[in-house]
Specification:
Blueprint (H helix, E strand, L loop, with lengths): L14 H11 L15 E3 L9 H18 L4 E3 L2 H7 L3 E5 L3 H11 L4 E5 L2 H11 L3 E7 L1 E2 L2 E2 H10 L8 E5 L4 H10 L3 E4 L4 H50 L5 H20 L7 H10 L12 H4 L7 H8 L1 H12 L5 H13 L20 H16 L10 H9 L8 H9 L1 H10 L3
Helix pairs in contact: 2-3, 4-8, 5-6, 8-9, 9-10, 9-15, 9-17, 9-18, 13-14, 14-15, 15-16
């Protein structure tokens, strides 16, 4: 191209790039003054009239994708390296029509490797083997040996459709089929006759759309993971502060978290009626350190008293549940509603008993939130195993017998059954996490 001689080196070192960048920087986007626009360019050098526009377009696009992969604000000339980079992803074509196969091969030859399947079963096998590398799936709707909806159903079942776009290829317009296809998650339906240039643009735009969507989702996931880890550290720290003030060790927090997770996982396996999931267990486990956060508001004369509390002092001590509920509501805002719900439920209700004899509200049975029931067992078990200013530590067998026999209050029989089944695992973790 004539302008190619002016596009050598990185962006800041050439005239064309400077002019384009200046023009972009002069753009003001209403209500978004802080947005910074970057520019990447892909180009190809060719003598005039030696190749088609479509071929130039494909090569330039491959160079652009290579430039983007290297980072922001770059200029890349098309080369074999660009071609090899672009072929790291696959295009799966499910068709037994040789004309269609040839056209699609030509469209993607500079950007992707193509995989071809002539039956639905073979297509599903290819997806299973290479789903992480597939950029797009193009399939006939109905053909000899091919059922596009069977491929679609498989991708939906395996959640691949969330990451990989699927496009139906059709010989003619079928309104009912199209409606079903879109409602099931097909991103586009392309009907003959096919024009190579428009088809290329259409399919490449779909791939780019999914690429950016997946990239944004990955960035969001990483940021969410980072925030969750920071929150978990803060929660653990708050819980540890309470334990130190209560003259207990920080290991209590780690043990209660571990016991909570082990018991909850067994409840998930043995009691499907509670509809526990790995995500819910994660939330319950991470919220468990705040079960006694309300003790911050209890006077030292009561919290640290070595002897038995008077009835008046005990009533004040019991308020740590409701005070913990109030404190947590101030810590978390509405954007963390689910996490706040688990934290507040555990803090407020972890001293309720299955027979209604607990506090602060005297709830009974499964009116007590499941998360609080599980943490209650984990907390009671560790309290029995730990030496306190008012008692010695009990042995593993003594502690488990006391919990099973109701000497620490009545617990949910289903949770007790799960507790008994994981007793050895709890003892192993208790050994590992000793003070």
């Amino acid at each position: 191209l004539p302008m190619a001689d002016g596009l050598s080196g990185q962006g800041e070192n050439n005239l064309y790039y400077k002019k384009l960048t200046e023009a972009l920087q002069a753009i003001n986007i209403p209500n978004f003054p802080g947005i910074n626009v970057s520019l990447s360019i892909g180009y190809v050098r060719q003598l005039r009239n030696t190749t088609s526009f479509v071929s130039l377009y494909r090569c330039s696009e491959a160079a652009l994708q290579h430039a983007k992969a290297k980072g922001r604000s770059r200029i890349e000339e098309y080369s074999k390296e660009c071609m090899e980079h672009s072929k790291e992803k696959y295009v799966l074509i499910v068709s037994n029509n040789e004309d269609k196969l040839k056209m699609i091969r030509r469209i993607f030859q500079t950007r992707f490797k193509t995989i071809e399947a002539k039956t639905s079963e073979k297509a599903i096998e290819c997806i299973e083997q290479s789903n992480q590398k597939i950029a797009i799936v193009l399939t006939e709707i109905y053909a000899n040996g091919i059922d596009g909806f069977a491929v679609l159903d498989y991708m939906r079942t395996m959640d691949y459709i969330l990451k990989v776009p699927i496009v139906f290829l059709s010989s003619n317009y079928m309104e009912d089929v199209y409606k079903n296809a879109f409602s099931y998650g097909v991103i586009d339906v392309i009907t003959e006759p096919y024009d190579a240039y428009s088809l290329s643009s259409r399919l490449n735009n779909i791939i780019e759309l999914y690429h950016h969507k997946n990239h944004l989702e990955e960035m969001t996931r990483r940021q969410t993971d980072k925030i969750e880890k920071q929150n978990a550290k803060i929660i653990d720290s708050l819980g540890t502060v309470v334990e130190f003030r209560d003259m207990e060790s920080g290991a209590h927090i780690r043990r209660v978290k571990t016991f909570t997770r082990i018991i909850a996982e067994q409840v998930m396996r043995r009691c499907p009626e509670y509809e526990l999931s790995h995500w819910k267990i994660k939330m319950i486990t991470e919220a468990s350190p705040l079960h006694d956060i309300g003790k911050i508001a209890i006077p030292d004369s009561i919290l640290l008293k070595p002897g038995k509390l008077t009835s008046e002092e005990y009533e004040i001590m019991k308020t740590h549940t409701t005070k913990g509920y109030e404190i947590i509501h101030k810590i978390f805002d509405d954007s963390e509603e689910e996490y706040r719900m688990y934290c507040t439920s555990i803090a407020r209700y972890h001293h309720e008993k299955f027979d209604g004899s607990g506090y602060p509200e005297g709830l009974s049975g499964d009116d007590i939130p499941l998360c609080a029931q599980i943490v209650s067992v984990a907390d009671a078990y560790d309290a029995l195993l730990s030496k306190r200013c008012y008692k010695d530590a009990y042995s593993y067998d003594e502690a488990s017998d006391m919990i099973m026999n109701g000497e620490c209050g009545k617990f949910n029989p289903k949770i007790l059954s799960c507790f008994r089944e994981v007793k050895q695992e709890l003892e192993k973790k208790a050994d590992e996490l000793r003070d």
